[in-house]
């Protein structure tokens, strides 16, 4: 199979996205096409296309009269992201039950929980947070529904970034996240559907005390 090289737009997209998730571009920071073009050595047009793609994925927002900025998180956005993930996980769990894929789901959850455990180093890193979202995403992947997978994939980095900024100063929160994933796996293996739905809601319905000073 021939692997096509990344277009300039894709190169710019990956570079800018990496600067956002590594906090080189802080939350809320202004994105200048001219500055990014100069810093990345890529012409303006691919930079604009990359920013447009990042806006579609929620990592960049457009403000009237002030242009493009890296997303910022408040309680409303975090709640909407959690509610979206609840809908995806619950709906896809139901689809797995209907199509007889519960065992496959449990195996995929176990595999991703093991990866999450291996990734933990005692410090909260963005790579670790990605693995926590990959666990939640297993409910969607087990459905083998390309449209659902694509829809969630388009918000993957936004979900991971939200979790990273929420929990970066709260070690107990991401340890609790791991234990909740263990509990979710056991509930899925038990086959008690109501307990699974309740565990999903409990996992993603919490008080979110987001401080606008985080990540700065």
From TrEMBL:
GO molecular function, a single term: sequence-specific DNA binding
Protein name listed in UniProt: GntR family transcriptional regulator
Assigned keywords, A-Z: DNA-binding, Transcription, Transcription regulation
Annotated ranges, domain HTH gntR-type: 6-73
Domain of life: Bacteria
Record bears the keyword ATP-binding: no
Keyword DNA-binding found: yes
Database matches in InterPro entries: AsnC-type_HTH_dom (IPR000485), GntR_C (IPR011711), TF_FadR/GntR_C (IPR008920), Tscrpt_reg_HTH_GntR (IPR000524), WH-like_DNA-bd_sf (IPR036388), WH_DNA-bd_sf (IPR036390)
């Amino acid at each position: 199979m021939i692997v096509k090289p990344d277009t300039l737009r894709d190169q710019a997209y990956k570079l800018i996205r990496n600067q956002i998730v590594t906090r080189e571009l802080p939350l809320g920071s202004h994105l200048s096409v001219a500055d990014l073009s100069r810093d990345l050595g890529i012409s303006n047009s691919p930079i604009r296309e990359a920013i447009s793609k990042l806006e579609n994925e929620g990592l960049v927002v457009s403000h009237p009269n002030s242009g493009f900025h890296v997303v910022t998180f408040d309680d409303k956005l975090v709640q909407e992201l959690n509610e979206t993930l609840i809908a995806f996980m619950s709906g896809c769990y139901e689809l797995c039950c209907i199509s007889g894929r519960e065992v496959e789901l449990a195996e995929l959850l176990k595999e991703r929980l093991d990866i999450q455990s291996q990734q933990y180093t005692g410090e909260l890193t963005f790579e670790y947070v990605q693995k926590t979202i990959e666990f939640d995403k297993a409910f969607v992947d087990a459905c083998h529904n390309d449209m659902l997978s694509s829809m969630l994939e388009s918000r993957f980095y936004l979900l991971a970034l939200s979790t990273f900024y929420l929990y970066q100063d709260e070690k107990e929160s991401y340890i609790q996240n791991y234990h909740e994933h263990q509990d979710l796996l056991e509930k899925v293996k038990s086959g008690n559907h109501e307990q699974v739905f309740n565990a999903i809601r409990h996992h993603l319905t919490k008080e979110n005390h987001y401080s606008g000073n985080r990540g700065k």
